[in-house]
Amino acid sequence: MSLSNPHSSTPVSLAAATAQALARHAAHSFGLMGNGNAHLIDNLTQAGVRYTAVRHEAATVAAADAYTRVSGDIAIATTTYGAGFTNTLTALAEAAQARTPMLVVVGDAPSGGPRPWDVDEEMLSAAVGVRLFTLGVAGVDETVDRAVRYALRMRRPVVLGLPYDLVTAAVVPQDPGSSAASVGASTSPSAPLTEIDLTDPAVLAELSVSVAADPQPVASPAPAPTAMMPGAIVSTSTIPAPHRIEAAAEALLGAKRPLIIAGHGAHLAGAATELGALAAQLGALTATTALAREIFPEANYDLGITGGFGQPEAMAVVQQADVVLVVGASLNQFTMRFGELFGEGTTVLRVDTEQVAAPKTVHPVTHQLLQGGAVETLRAIADALGDAQVRSEEATTAAWRDTVAGLEPGGALRSRFAGSSEFCADGLLDPRGVAARIGELLPEDRHVTSDGGHFIGWANMYWQVAAPERMIMVGTAYQTIGLGFCTVPGVAAAAPESTVVLSTGDGGGLMALADLETAIRTARSQVIVVWNDSAYSAEVHLYGEMGLDKGPMLIPTVNFAGVASALGATGVVVESLADLEALREWTASGAAGTILLDCRVSGSVVADYQREVQRVNGLDVPAE
Description:
Blueprint: H1 14-23, E1 28-31, H2 38-46, E2 50-53, H3 57-71, E3 76-79, H4 83-86, H5 89-98, E4 102-108, H6 121-127, E5 131-134, H7 140-154, E6 157-163, H8 179-183, H9 201-210, E7 216-217, E8 238-239, H10 242-253, E9 258-262, H11 264-268, H12 272-282, E10 285-288, E11 302-305, H13 312-320, E12 323-327, E13 347-352, E14 366-371, H14 374-385, H15 400-403, H16 431-441, E15 446-450, H17 456-462, E16 471-473, H18 484-494, E17 499-505, H19 506-511, H20 516-522, E18 525-532, H21 537-544, H22 560-566, E19 570-574, H23 581-588, E20 593-600, H24 608-616
Parallel strand pairs: 1-2, 1-3, 3-4, 4-6, 5-6, 9-10, 9-12, 10-11, 12-13, 13-14, 15-16, 15-17, 17-18, 18-20, 19-20
Antiparallel strand pairs: 7-8
């Protein structure tokens, strides 16, 4: 029964009403059942929302996070109250930092007051930058719709609390003439959001922008598409003031070595077409952050990932650029190579929806912010450039990107060093050679999800992906490890026909071991790569090199292959490159089920990005 039908005499419980309201916005949920959400889960499935069970509460949020990053659709995570909710906090903080909208529906303290096992969920949510909406027997549709609007506008998760004593209580029927009943159908992620909610801080911020002198409002948009871009989030946009667009166009027209860098925000905005067109118009080289790989249509002019994951010779070319247009990239310390990405005197034109500060740089640069939506701003720049030749008619030299050598397949700007031999001095495998060989053997149709840890560079450096949403890293925004296995059910649900490829370490793998079972159970086709170097290597390569005792940084060698086999997967201990033939055979036989590669790699190899971390901390460690 719909709450908007007040003529039915059948009482509807708060759990049922909440499930019906949620079902209008999300098609998939990830949960762990407990006292506080058992009735909700039962009603979610009755409302047509698919449900995937996980084994640790952190996985409810991490799986929903991964689902949205891959599919572009908002998802539901659900746990019980108290300990169930507190177990989500690390994954919830990651989702907040990564700007992933989701609906986290949890049991909450009774309306009469907390019990010893309850916590202040509103305060805990606020501590990680998340807003809580408390549900009650009145206004369920309105509360859920407001929460969804907030999540989409702010690109943040929201928490909805279900008071324990009200879960089975009958809700107050909705008056069909009320505002909640009238807007319920218009608040889906793919529809324009027309109601003004003055309790929403995001709305208040937008109203402030609308009366500012600088940003120009975008004209009324065409009807919204029926689905978001993969990984994309609906939001409103502005165009920078005309004089700022003109200044940017003038700088780009005068550039001798133009470069465009696209970040995750450009992907979320669906700006691939505009990026490609502007790069062609300018004759610019291109590059991306790790989460925007393959966004540019002309890969032959792309320098790849910027920052510590970047190819060294390609990063030297980035330093030569005189004007760099950066679209939707945060330019954090890792992307910026701790300030060394841009050369002296570079003009950096920054397109972002927020008032971002200039990046920290070693060399002096000029930073110009173009605050506005990526698509709209790129179109405005292209229009300002007009049909005029980017280079003067008298010029006889070719565009910079046509003069740069080494961009051909296997060229100097493409090749990656994979180690001088199969084994390191300690007799264990060089992880670079392992990563390169795995990259050659993986199924072509794949989605890669990476845990956090020192090994994070190997997948980004040696494995190709076909589109930005096919490479996700849940954990890096909050600098956490242990969410790798937790993301698999989300990726598998969002892309059921694709092979899920998980890259994780032994430390993070042990932390998330409860959801290895979930990963094996939910993925139709999956490759799990465990970089097993018997250590927390990021700490070894930093604090160990500082002289701290390495004992607490070491892990006894764990047989992940044996554990995976016990749970129904194919477990393979990889002690030589020849052992990776098991992956080739698995792929050739149909790539069905899960194969776990327990790669016994050397901890002596330091990733390039980790060497940058060492240098910025005053360490000069000889190369292995």
